[in-house]
Amino acid sequence: MKTTTKIVTISLLFCVLLASCQSTAESQADPPKPEDRSQPQSENQAQEPQANDENMLVVSLSPPKINLDPLHTFTSTEAQIYTAIYEGLVTYHPFTLEPMPAVAEYWEISSDRKTYRFHIRESARYWNGDQVEPEHFRDTWLALINPANPGEYGSLLDIIKGARDYRLGLNDDPTSVGITVPEPGILQVELEKPAPHFLKILCHHSFSPLHPKMLEVKDWSNMTTVLGNGPFTIVESNDTEMVLKKNQLYWDSNAVHLDGINIVYSDDGKWAARSIDNGTLHWAEGNVDFDILENKEAMILNPVFSTTYFFFSSSSSQSESYNNPQLRRALGLLVPWDEVRSTQYMYLPTDSLVPQISGYPTVHGIAATDSETAMKLLDEAGFSDGKGLPEIKFLIPEGTEAQRIADLMAEAWRKALGVKVTIENAGFGDYYERIKNEDFTLGVLTWVGDFADPLSFLQMWTSDAALNVGKYHNDRYDAMVSEAATEENEIERYKEMATAEQLLLDDATVLPIKHAPAFNIIDLDRVRGWFPNPLDIHPFKYLEFEQFILPDGVV
């Protein structure tokens, strides 16, 4: 989005945006208080809403290809949908994002902080009435780290005893993994070392249980429904919409106030603006024509734990030369960063990967053009003045922003080095599959952290992480991240992670562009339970329509 706002500092704007978001949220409803997680919880006894046609929430989301398999997922659109159809041991608090009891009624942690015992609710059910069992979590997590078909987020479980060796095929005995059911109703997890972030990662949808019948499914590509355990069930699903209805068997159904949700996949900004204005669309994620939108007060802008970056692919058979960090850094130093990161085009330009977190040290990547150093590095890498450089191929999603930046980079490299550069566009719905499977030199992603911790940006670049689509490999980096993941002292932990980030940026595998705020269009005078938050995840369970009560005598 083009803006003329003058940005003084990133941190100042984040504070201003966050303050405005908090006041917006507080003005429409007090956020729910986190439950006591150390003791059993009673079921919510809120009043059941009366069913009516007007109690259907209509939402517009971006139209990528939706994968209903939570073990193999990649997009933020899927993450939002999964809040309706799946639920794990814990779930996000809608405002603070702290872990809240979900399928796990409560849990116990050993004195050495390495063993967790989760007590599964007897009232937790799948949509068909079958009880959710601790064995379902065990079997689903083992499927997530199965080396024959590992899930994208499986490496996050490496902190569990034996999980990494099993995931990498170094040990084929699933009983060696510290995920057990020692007695009925109890899931026990043993960690290699204490991990302060463990409960936070369990909020992620990849760690939800799958019904045994769903674990038997081999091909999810044409699935239009599932057997979930979340607060809503799927009535209909196709390429243009998904219709959900309230799950009456959900353990906390009395706290679910919507009768259903109609999710429309659309990138038609004019339709979204008109629909928001006439009240037939209640919430739109970003794809709205702001120029014609009349209800400007419905625009919510808030900072998100997110970074847009270009990255080199080390797996490209056509350009193995670009595996050389010196060569990558030389190319990075030739980029006209003042134009790429111009505040004319973005709110929060950055040269760091990890968004600002209180207490996390400042880390800088390539901040400015330096042609002299670039040419020295090229000479050291064996490509004096760019002679002999293989073709550079960009693979980017359709869209003006990615195209603008790729064009600037390509022109700079053609002019300075005479190298051939091509730019290939991919449809948004296909892009994520293509960057995982095709040859290219540079791609681009906007990554939203899966939990509010630097590790959610750093672990994905370790050599054996399924999310490492660039196939970056550095043994020193791997060791740094592994050590930081189990460091209990937060100050030391942040220092270790910052050192790892600096190595990643010095290797120029990642070229950060901006920290992207979230744009949502939602009338908070009409919809309750929606709160701006750093992950831009808004659990559907908590959403409801504002009830307007007329004074006595008014009809």
TrEMBL record:
A Pfam family this chain is assigned to: SBP_bac_5
Biased composition annotated in UniProt, kind: Polar residues: 39-53
Source taxon at top rank: Bacteria
GO biological process, one term: peptide transport
CDD domains from the UniProt entry: PBP2_OppA
Annotated region (Disordered), positions in chain: 26-54
Keywords of this entry: Signal, Transport
UniProt xrefs under SUPFAM superfamilies: Periplasmic binding protein-like II (SSF53850)
Principal localisation: other
Occurrences of domain Solute-binding protein family (ranges): 98-465
Annotated compartments: Cell envelope
Keyword Transferase: no
Similarity-based family: Belongs to the bacterial solute-binding protein 5 family.
The protein, known as: Extracellular solute-binding protein family 5
Species in which this protein is naturally found: Sediminispirochaeta smaragdinae (strain DSM 11293 / JCM 15392 / SEBR 4228) (Spirochaeta smaragdinae)
